[in-house]
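Apologies for my clumsy wording, but could you write out the amino acids of a protein and the tokens describing how it folds?
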Amino acid sequence: MAAQVNPDMIARLDELETRVRALEDTDAIRNLKARYAELCDDNYNPDGIAALFVEDAVWESGPLGRYEGREAIREFFRGASRIFTFAIHYSLNSQIEVTGDTAWAKWYLFM
């Protein structure tokens, strides 16, 4: 005798899977931000920071400029310790929205 497929149960499992994935993605983003802050507080470790970005990433910070590509980001952070002689990154009030394969995030930063 073949097992009965319950369409309602399948839909509920799909929804649960989507929700769990969004929670895992949100946590991964929060951890990525924490790792970035840790590397910035490690004398702006350029290799560690660059490793957090995809090859075609863009890092932009208003008056500090816009850097396109992992290597440009690495080069900027090689000189960052001359710009910021002391830093302790304290991020709070995270807002993270995950929609499928994209996400938006915002933090308050004290440094």
